[in-house]
Amino acid sequence: MKNILTIKETMEFLSISSYNTFKRNYLNQGLPVISVGKNKRVDKEDLEEFINAHKISKELSNS
């Protein structure tokens, strides 16, 4: 499995179809991005760490 994802692959992995939603909820919130020329890539390990860091506990989500 690939460890470095394109923005499109990252959005597909997250089931997000809108780039604006991805930008607002992930990039603007600090998801690390690798810049290669004009292209942007996301390390899958960074993505998983970002998701884990933004988890809400069950108690809070039921409130």
Task: Describe this protein's structure.
The chain is of the alpha+beta class. It has one domain (4-56). It has helices spanning 7-13, 19-27, 44-53, 58-61; strands at residues 4-6, 34-36, 39-43. It has a 3-stranded antiparallel sheet with strand order 1-3-2. The longest helix has 10 residues, at 44-53. The radius of gyration is 13 Å and the shape is globular.
Mean pLDDT: 91
**Number of structural domains:** 1
How many helix segments?
Answer: 4
Taking pLDDT < 50 over at least 5 consecutive residues as the criterion, the unreliable ranges are none
Instruction: Give the overall shape.
Output: globular
What class would the helix/strand composition place it in? alpha+beta
Calculate the terminal CA-CA distance, rounded to whole Å: 38 Å
% residues in beta strands: 15-25%
Binned, the helix content reads: 40-55%
Counted beta strands: 3
Task: Give the SSE order as H and E letters.
Answer: EHHEEHH
Can you list the strand order of the major beta sheet?
A: 1-3-2
Describe the sheet with the most strands. Answer: 3 strands, antiparallel
What is the CA-atom radius of gyration, in angstroms?
13 Å
Brief account:
The chain has four helices and three strands, in the order E-H-H-E-E-H-H.
